[in-house]
């Protein structure tokens, strides 16, 4: 089969997914003839973040351990410790011990927490994020997936695709991982059968085409013996494609060129009165901005020109995606932590209601009467109401109407916010289009998700909703504040805190409309 990326095509304003082609038969040069990536494609020589995922006992830690053993310069004492330890099939060392660092993991033989491992090969630097396969620790896998450039999805050749495999695929799509390596492991336990590999490959293609993957490369391996991990297998001459390591070395790194609209979530305000400096500090989450350009606060709609872009290493003429900077404006507009700066023609939505896809991470089921907060890039917003509309069926991958949600469920829901918040859809701007739901009382994370629709219209308030007005605050809590513009940020901060406290006490609360009270 030839490569056929799963591209997204625009049709009448909607995204249409072209079916994914699982690629398995491409030929590749042997490792000794690996190309000079820096000369051919400089972007390929950067660091690659690789997630391992899949169901429990499919061999994730063993696979990465074997890769480290064969392709990297492990310390001599590490190799000696493994040689003296227990052995597995064929008298090989237990390579999983290179990844499973917790005592409980070694005792139980499963991965519990995410293990991060950095290593270099002759051509590339890698960061491996080894995630747990057990259903109980799905939240850890979701956390790791949010950092990945590519995912290695392991499947046991004896058992094929499992429910947890499907859940992990859905989460990869949810967090925006676009490249998947389908590793069919333990081929030695099915007598190196090509038919067993082809069946799993076809099954994966059948159910994964509806997700937004650009490419999925299928590779048959036996992690314990190292077949097709870092060296080509003599036991599977029917597979002419690259080894896992060769394919990893050919993949592009995280996109470093500025993409999408300019977004700058403000983390804090820096002041230096002696030098008359007031800077808005944060990390550019999308696009770029230059000195002299006009930017706008998405909520207040106030604008100013960029006077200076300061960093610890000196001033810049331009700041791009991923850079942490402090932006000084030619006019002091009232913004504080939680604000999102953008360009006037590409502002995020001033949202009051969002439609979202989310994975429920808490062991406590969804409670429609619960108190939740929405945490975006740097903002924390009271949630007036959270309604579950549907759940994803992991067998059929269809959504079915539902109003309940439990641990590890992938749900569609509507979130009404207690005040306007600057939010994008995930497709337009991933950093400002993703969120965490937080329990307002305990502070625990209960769900993570992405925004599919952001609506500026407020949900219809019911009779139990308490509206916190500006006049009410001026008479009470904020009576000591002056009418000066610099007092506005403190006014908004206090209003926010009152709303959070009321919401934590179980009271549905909204802050006065942005048309009358810009917060």
Descriptive keywords:
single chain; about 525 residues; alpha+beta; Elongation Factor Tu (Ef-tu), domain 3; 10 helices; 29 strands; disordered N terminus
Protein architecture, described:
By secondary structure, the chain is an alpha+beta fold. The protein folds into three domains: 208 residues, Rossmann fold, CATH 3.40.50; 82 residues, Elongation Factor Tu (Ef-tu), domain 3 (Beta Barrel); 163 residues, Beta Barrel (Elongation Factor Tu (Ef-tu), domain 3). Strands 3-11-10-9-4-8-7 form a seven-stranded mixed beta sheet, with helices on both faces. The longest helix has 17 residues. The termini are far apart.
What's the short story on this structure?
The chain has three domains: 42-249, P-loop containing nucleotide triphosphate hydrolases (Rossmann fold, 3-Layer(aba) Sandwich); 264-345, Translation factors (Elongation Factor Tu (Ef-tu), domain 3, Beta Barrel), CATH 2.40.30; 349-511, Translation factors (Elongation Factor Tu (Ef-tu), domain 3, Beta Barrel).
């Amino acid at each position: 089969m030839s490569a056929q990326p799963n591209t997204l095509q625009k049709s009448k304003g909607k995204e249409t997914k072209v079916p994914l082609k699982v690629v398995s038969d491409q030929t590749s040069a042997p490792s000794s003839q690996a190309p000079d990536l820096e000369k051919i494609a400089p972007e390929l020589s950067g660091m690659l973040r690789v997630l391992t995922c899949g169901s429990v006992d499919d061999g994730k830690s063993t696979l990465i351990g074997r890769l480290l053993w064969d392709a990297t310069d492990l310390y001599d004492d590490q190799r000696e410790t493994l040689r003296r330890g227990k052995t597995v099939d064929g008298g090989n060392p237990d390579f999983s011990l290179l990844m499973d660092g917790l005592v409980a993991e070694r005792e139980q033989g499963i991965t519990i927490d995410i293990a991060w491992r950095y290593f270099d090969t002759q051509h590339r630097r890698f960061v491996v994020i080894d995630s747990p396969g057990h259903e109980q620790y799905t939240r850890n896998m979701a956390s790791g997936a949010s950092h990945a450039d590519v995912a290695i999805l392991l499947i046991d050749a004896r058992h094929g695709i499992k429910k947890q495999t499907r859940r992990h695929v859905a989460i990869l799509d949810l967090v925006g991982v676009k490249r998947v390596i389908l590793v069919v492991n333990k081929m030695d336990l099915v007598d190196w059968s090509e038919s067993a590999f082809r069946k799993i490959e076809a099954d994966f293609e059948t159910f994964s085409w509806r997700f937004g993957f650009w490419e999925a490369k299928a590779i048959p391996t036996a992690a314990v013996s190292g077949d097709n991990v870092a060296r080509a297998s003599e036991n599977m001459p029917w597979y002419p494609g690259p080894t896992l390591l060769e394919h990893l070395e050919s993949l592009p790194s995280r996109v470093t060129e500025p993409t999408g609209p300019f977004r700058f979530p403000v983390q804090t305000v820096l002041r230096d009165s002696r030098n008359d400096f007031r800077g808005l500090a944060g990390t550019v989450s999308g696009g770029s901005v230059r000195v002299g350009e006009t930017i706008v606060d998405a909520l207040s709609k106030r604008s100013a020109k960029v006077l200076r872009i300061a960093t610890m290493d000196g001033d810049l003429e331009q700041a791009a995606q991923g850079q942490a900077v402090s932006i000084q404006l030619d006019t002091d507009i009232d913004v504080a932590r939680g604000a999102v700066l953008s360009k006037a023609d590409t502002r995020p939505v001033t949202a009051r209601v969002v439609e979202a896809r989310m994975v429920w991470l808490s062991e406590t089921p969804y409670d429609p009467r619960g108190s939740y907060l929405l945490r975006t890039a740097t903002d924390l917003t009271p949630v007036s109401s959270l309604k579950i509309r549907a759940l994803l069926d992991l067998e059929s991958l269809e959504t079915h109407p539902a109003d309940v949600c439990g641990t590890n469920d992938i749900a569609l829901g509507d979130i009404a916010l207690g005040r306007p918040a600057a939010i994008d859809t995930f497709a337009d701007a991933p950093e400002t289009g993703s969120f965490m739901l937080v329990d307002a009382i305990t502070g625990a994370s209960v769900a993570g998700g992405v925004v599919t629709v952001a609506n500026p219209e407020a949900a219809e308030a019911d009779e139990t909703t308490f509206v916190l007005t500006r006049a009410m605050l001026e008479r009470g809590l904020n009576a000591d504040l002056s009418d000066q513009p610099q007092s506005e940020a403190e006014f908004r901060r206090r209003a926010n805190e009152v709303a959070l406290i009321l919401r934590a006490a179980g009271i549905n609360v909204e802050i006065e409309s942005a048309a009358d009270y810009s917060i």
